[in-house]
Design goal:
- Two copies of one chain form a homodimer.
- By secondary structure, the first copy, chain A, is an all-alpha fold.
- Chain A has one domain: Chorismate Mutase Domain, subunit A.
- The first copy, chain A, is 79% helix and 0% strand.
- The interface between A and B is large, with 52 and 52 residues.
Chain lengths: 107, 107
């Protein structure tokens, strides 16, 4: 689905091409994120079942170090990579807390 | 690179498997983001060259609507998809402002 904004024919060709690539990458990112949350949801259920806390600072520190290193290799700002992981983990912890809350209600 | 946190052999197998998949997906996400920022950097240069403003609310509204719809189809929370795009676009606008600032300094 194209996302027009300039009147037809007035978007510079190079900008239109770039936006089409961005839209393709965004769809890919979204589908990978959907897959990632499917997995973290299972992790949340496992943690709730075993009584482990939703957040895990040591694991997060190791993930941050790894992603900063991968970012440097890919020409991405390591600061941004860290902010990105923090953003995702915040959402994951929110899911885990919901799962733990649901489990508590069922107990 | 694995990211251990429990003493060796004490992480439940299912959790270790899930974490390995998460690490794979995170590497893929990071590389797609690196590619996305390469493209938006080119867009920023194009916009600066043509004197277009860095942010573009109409385009962003259309992107948000598209990603919310894709999220619903993929079992992802549309609210999260919107927050994700906002998070990325904030970084892109920061890059564009840097590019515009550099161009102004060179003028």
């Amino acid at each position: 689905m194209p996302v027009p904004e300039f009147p037809e024919g007035t978007v510079p060709r190079e900008l239109a091409d770039a936006r089409a690539s961005i839209d393709n990458l965004d769809a890919a990112l979204l589908h990978l994120l959907a897959e990632r949350f499917k997995i973290t949801r299972r992790v949340g259920e496992l943690k709730a079942a075993k009584g482990l806390p939703p957040a895990d600072p040591d694991r997060e520190d190791a993930q941050i170090a790894r992603l900063r290193s991968l970012a440097s290799e890919s020409g991405l700002d390591p600061e941004f990579a860290e902010k990105f992981l923090t953003f995702i983990v915040r959402e994951v912890v929110r899911h885990h807390e919901q799962i733990a809350g649901n489990a508590a209600h069922q107990a």
